């Protein structure tokens, strides 16, 4: 009887861990020099104001990506943007980290609509469908660049920091 109880207890623990893991899907984090660190799921992004960015991939074809403007996400995290982005605040940068270790860098001014007309998005859809395996669930889409090197796949974290000498 004691073995049965132990096995039942272990089975219940395993079921709890599996259920908890199943409820937590892929996320992207925004951290660093922010007032409100964020952890966002695909479902969270789906509830936000959506935008589209047309981007020419390495295949030479234009594709339509849907997602949320990066500026909006940064503002939700309390990142200095808009009229407050001046002086020392202009030394802040965004490091985008991907699941495979790939990283790209942006100055905050490159992402702020008071400095540029370009809208960088965190996409979760390609042509109104989820991003394909190996490309998602989150992709940074940077339209208007000659090389698509900063349009990164499998984004997992975005970190805001000050540049140091």
From TrEMBL:
UniProt xrefs under InterPro entries: OxRdtase_Mopterin-bd_dom (IPR000572), OxRdtase_Mopterin-bd_sf (IPR036374)
Database matches in Pfam families: Oxidored_molyb
Family matches, as Gene3D superfamilies: Oxidoreductase, molybdopterin-binding domain
Signal peptide: 1-22
Domain Oxidoreductase molybdopterin-binding: start-end pairs: 28-144
Protein name per its UniProtKB record: Oxidoreductase molybdopterin binding
Keywords: Signal
């Amino acid at each position: 009887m004691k073995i049965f109880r132990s096995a039942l207890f272990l089975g219940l623990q395993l079921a709890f861990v599996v259920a908890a893991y199943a409820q937590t899907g892929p996320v992207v984090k925004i951290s660093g020099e922010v007032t409100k660190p964020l952890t966002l799921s695909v479902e969270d992004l789906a509830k936000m104001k959506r935008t589209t960015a047309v981007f020419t991939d390495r295949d030479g074809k234009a594709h339509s990506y849907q997602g949320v403007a990066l500026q909006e996400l940064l503002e939700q995290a309390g990142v200095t943007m808009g009229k407050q982005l001046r002086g020392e605040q202009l030394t802040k940068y965004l490091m985008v980290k991907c699941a495979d270790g790939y990283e790209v860098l942006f100055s905050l001014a490159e992402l702020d609509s008071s400095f540029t007309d370009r809208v960088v998005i965190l996409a979760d859809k390609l042509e109104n469908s989820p991003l394909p395996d190996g490309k998602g669930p989150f992709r940074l889409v940077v339209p208007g660049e000659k090389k698509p090197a900063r349009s990164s796949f499998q984004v997992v974290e975005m970190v805001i920091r000050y540049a140091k000498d």
